[in-house]
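Example 3.2
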Amino acid sequence: MGGNNNDSVTESCTTNLGRRRFVQGATLTAVGMALGSPTASASIGGPGVLVPIGGRFEPENEILHEKLIDLGGGEDDVQLAIFPTASGTPTTSAEAFRDDFNAYGVPEDQIDIIEVATEDDPDTTEDESEWVDNAHSETWADRVRDATLLMFTGGNQLRIIDALTDEDGGLTPVGQAVYDVYDDGGVIAGSSAGAGMMCDPMIGAGESFGALKDGVSYEDTYDDDDDHRVFLTDGFDFLEEGLCDQHFMERGRFGRLVRAMWHEDPDTGIERNEIGYGVDENTGFIFDPEADAGEVCGEGGVTIVDLSEAYEVSTGSDALHLEDMLVHYLTHGDVFHFDDRTVTPDTAKDWDCVDDPYYDGNRDSSSLFDEFEIVDLLSRELVDNTDNSVYSEASERGRTLEMEFWQENDTEGFWGRSWPEDDEGRYAIANVRAAVWPDH
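Structure, written as tokens:
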């Protein structure tokens, strides 16, 4: 990676407003007003370790598999319990995960498939939908408590909540056992749906454009082709502060995470969340309470959105106009510190892109929520570019949303080959500002 020096990049960025439509004197709503004074720290929850994985957890991902095994006690001591509860093919899914971990050195007698599910696997003769009754079994709860590492498969996160809670919203014995493992210092890992269920409220469905334009639904919008609002529902509160989303850059979910974070409703007890985490596929974000930090491990990245200084400009509609979002994008080996919300890049990322950008001039984008588009905007089109702001938009059914990302004096960007399983360079990006608004 070469570079072109441009000392004016960080000097001029504080006065650059680009095409943002800042409205003087408009109605403003700050996160600090809703939740008290904005804090400079984030909470990661209890004494256990959380590892949300953004989906498509590949068998070939040796580094992440071995990291999970180590967190659970190592090959000799880990006790792995696999929850196929979210899956539509519970036996098939569970056995695939069992075989993967066995291939990385975990003996089969240290792997337990927890038979709690709501769906029947069409590839077996057994009716796995009857497993849902096992969630009320103390015997199965005891088997869960024997584990040091719980692995939740992908599928539909609503199935996990339905299976592990009773009609009154309390925990079943197996649901309580999951919390007991976590409270005892165990590891809870989950891929896709298994990641989404870790926070409360939980994102159940929705798309970025519909979320930013039309808002939030408390009814499932997954099968409604005409309703793309973000669906918020009850989840588990392992992550005490913040929301988590998955398949993040692959499915362009930046907008739906932002809308879910900004939403508040006193009638339901939902408060705004200052911080949110979007995890890419085949990637884990390891929430380590001892280090008070989160580390990225995997092929993709983790987007961290901080709304502690954000404010809303009234649009007179359900569409969201939000200013001064803070955005970070981390890849393998990068660490996010929860106490002061700072980023430490992996040591392999030794090229300072902001001081010495490689790309000369950027492009406007009309595909804001396409796969990995925002990664390109944050990296090649911004922190690794001589230009200090970049504009994008998205349009559906004759309606348009606009967005801008820009640098400030504290913006940082580093590049290097930190993921040893390929030769591609990856970025660590910190303190980019962003705004989103509707084009009326």
